[in-house]
Structure formats: C-alpha cells, structure tokens
Amino acid sequence: MSWKSVAVLVVLACALGGYFYYDTYWLAPARDKAESTKGRLWAVEPKDVESVTIKRANETIRLRRSTSGGWEMLEPVKALGDRSTADDVITSLATLRMDREVNPNPPKLAEFGLDPPASEVRLEVKGRKDPLVLLVGAKSPTGAWVYAKEGGKPAVMTVSEVVGRDAARPAADFRDKTVIAFDKKSVSGIDLESGGERVSLVADEPGKWRIVKPGPYPADADMIADFLDKIESAKAKEFVADAPASLATYGLDHPASVTIWTGRDKDRASKTLLFGRADLDKKGVYVMRAGEPGVMLAPEDVWTAFPKTVAALRDKVVVAYAYDKANRVELESPKGRVVLERDGTGWKITAPDAVKADAGAVNAMLWSIRDLRASAFLADAAGDLGRFLKKADVTVKIWEEGVKDPKILRLGPSGETRGGKPAAVAAVEGQGPVMLVDAKALQDLSKTETDLRDRSVFPAFELNDVKRARLTAAGKPLVLERSGENDWKVVEPSRGSAKSDTMTNLVLGLKSLRWKEIASATGEDAARYGLDHPEVEVSLYKADGGDLGTLEVGKQDGAVTYVRVKPAATVYAVDSRLLSDLKKAPAEVRG
Asked: Which residues pair with 178 in a beta bridge?
C-alpha cells in the first residue's frame, strides 16, 4: 500500500473519530437536553434556580440558595430552609408544562381567579437578567388543573394542580424543622442542666462515656445513645412564636438545657438547645435554640429521654464481665453452694455432685447477672458495703479466662423499695458503688444443684442418629424403621406404612422430655412406681444397631407420671401432659 493511501485512511479515521467525539460529547447531550425540556413552560434546570419568591395576599415567602447547596429563608422570617421541600417545589416549578391554552387574551382575568391571583411565583435563575414569573389562579371545574399565566403575557392556560398546592404551602413547610443540627458521630461532650443541677460528660472514644462533673463516674452509654438519637432526629411539630413577648408562657424563662460539643481541640464547637415546659395536650415540649428568638414545639419523647439527674446518667451495670469468657461460677445462698465449670460449649456441676448442667438454665442465670441493673446508688466507696450489708445472703463468684481473681457479687435484703417493689443491696467486692437492685435478684440467684442440673430424661442424641424404634404396649411390640430424612415404615410384626409425622413428633418428644423431680435415685421398689409392668416402652436404636436407650412409662400419680430409661435405674417424675401423645403412639402410628 502506497504512503498516499495510508495518509488518506489516517485522515478518514481521524475525521470519523472526531465526528464520534463531537456527537457523543456535544450533540447527544444537547439532543437529550432539548428532549427533556420539550413542552416545558421554561427552558431552565432546577439546579440553576437561585431564589424563589411566593407572594400571597397576606404573606410573602422568599428562599435563597445557600453556598452549601441548601436553602435559607429570608421572609417571612430569617431561618434555615427545608432542603427537601424547597427542592421539590423548585423542581415542580422549573419543569412546569402547560396543559393547554384556555384564552389568548381574556377580557376578565377575575373569571380565572387571576385578578388578583391567588399567588405570584418568581424564580431568579442563574444567567438570566429578569425573573421568571407565574401567576396562579383558581382551580378548573374538574379540579385537576389550575389557571395560570406568565407575568407580562396575556394568555391564560391550565397547569397541573400540583402547582397550585405548592404555591399555597404554608411558610412553615419551607422552614428547616431540625430541632438542633449536629453529627452524632462527631459528638465529644455533653453538658446538661436541669433543676439547678449541672452534669458534664465526655466521650473518651465513640460509645464510651464518663461523667466528669460531678464525678468521675462511668456513664450509661445506652441512655446517652438513645438521647442523642432522639434529639438528632427530632423535627419541630410547630413553630410557635418567632419573637415571643414573654418566654415565661412557654416555661423558657428558667429553662433546662443541653449543650452538644462536637470535634476536639481547635475544631471543638457547641450548640445549645433550651427546654421549657411540656404541653400535654399537644404531646410536645417547648424548645429554643440558644441565640435564636424563635420558640418551637418538639416531640415529647425528646424531653422524656432527657437525663434529668446524675443518678439517671450513671452506668447502672452491677457487675461487668465477659459472658463468653466466664469459665467457672460459684454460688452461695441459703439453699447451699453450687460450683459450675465450663465443659466445652456447655457447663458441668462439680459440687456438691459431679453432674451435667442444663446449659439453658446456667446461661439464663448468667444473663440475669449480666443484665442486673442498679435502681439507686447508696455509696461510692467499696469500703461502704459493710454499712448497708452486714452479711450477704447471696454471693456469686465469676472467673474469666486469663484473669486470676474472680469478680465477687454480694447481695442481701434491704428495707427500701423502688418503684413500689422491694429492693436488695448489691455490690462487687473491692469495688464501688454500693447499689440497690430489684429484690427479685435474691431469688433468681439462689439456685440449687437441682435447679441447674441437666433434667433430660433420655440420653442426648440427634434426630439423624435414630434409625429404628420399638414401641411396646400391653406386651405387643411394634418395630419401625426410618429411611431418608423422615420416612418411617412398620417392619414388625408385619410390614406396612406408618405416620411419619407421628413418629417424628414422638422422637422429638423423647429428646426434649425433662423431669420435674427424682423419685428414686436407686430405682428400688419398681412396683411402687408401676415400672415392674410398664404401660408403654419406647426403645431407640442407631443405624449400627447400637441401643440409644429405652424409656419405660409407669404409673400416673396425679399431675406426674413415673418413668425411667434403661439401663439406668433412676426413676423420674415427669409432667403427665408430656406423655399423652407417647402413650397413644403404639395404637396410632400405623399408616
């Protein structure tokens, strides 16, 4: 190929590429813009609107776009604008489309509600010398449209009824309703003042608070987080007065206050919100932003969440420990001493007897300790415990992995009440403070070995472990076999179908069966419990033929029935209601 041919091809390729670039980056956007503005009353974009003025018979609303991209209200009062509302209205007006022209030059504008108009809307647009003006009149007979006309033009047209609604919005809709604006993640401190009491808090790290005045005390992080959530998200229910003659009307002459500090060091800044009286009828509380004259009505839950005393703000956790690290627990109470130790993912009792513990019962007890909260603080020094508690009724010792010494919780009765309920004294040995807690904790933590031991009647197994079952009633055995996940068949004395759901429920019932008490640990005098001739026997077997156990059901004695699981000798009393389906199974399990 000659150099001339190559040159021609290069020139053509450059020309084609240039055209593609011009079409993609210049012509296509221009076509898209022309298409999007087709049919609009004005060829402007909402983002280019710099201010909007809505004039009505009794008020004027004027908003101006701020340097931050939001809006500020200039009339009827100077205030922050509601960005969402302002953006919606601006978009509706800037992208307005005419439905139809009603009259090119009507003799009487009053017939259309345009003399005088219900409202006059002016948009100041970047790059345009004169404002865009729309006069909004009455609704059309159908109510779906409103009459309108451009300022300086005679024609009357109909436009969407949405324009009429937007132009008639009250001034309050355009005001920012945020009660106090701050970023919760940046909060580094809080000052609270109520009833002459002042409290100062500092966040050493996100979510970890301490009271520094008075104090120092650990603070209730959950309460503080809840308060900050509510006050950050609070929206004014009503703008009550922009410049009230008297603050006393709203209880703001002697207000409570919260000051929110954000940032640290040279970037530290604060905002203060003042609280007046609660208005029960309006379900709100009167508030003011410090330095601003207006009074707002905030939601009542903001005042409800306001921590009004030091005691309310203090950390109320009685004993802090890592539940997943606890590996040994000792309980001492009038009911005796019980020692528990971790056993893999579960627990075992090592004293007074070595038996398996009920993981659910132990975990419930540990959670009750973890969730124990103070209802009042009696003293701060660890040495003050003896003043309020001469001798503990209940002592709980908790050891944690990697920690040599246990945390020791001591509890005893108190003559005081809180919230109409009896209280108990509680404290962690060697630490302050001494606290009051719900007296129910004395009962909840007075556990015996029987309360905490595993009460399973049948030895532990998984459903998939069970391959065969033998049900015997009145001396007649019935043998069933499982295939697949849940398909049971009768194999003896004759083959046939079985109700698989009935069998599955029976196996689940055995797995979950719990005893109420031990009737006989040695199993002596079987006839006394009706176990010399059991009413029903249920045996479970593994796939390899191994015996999982045999439950014998003996005599019913009122609300309990006696059972045992061979080859063990122990006789248990169980709730009779738990055995009703099992007793009927031999007769009902056939398909």
From this structure: 235
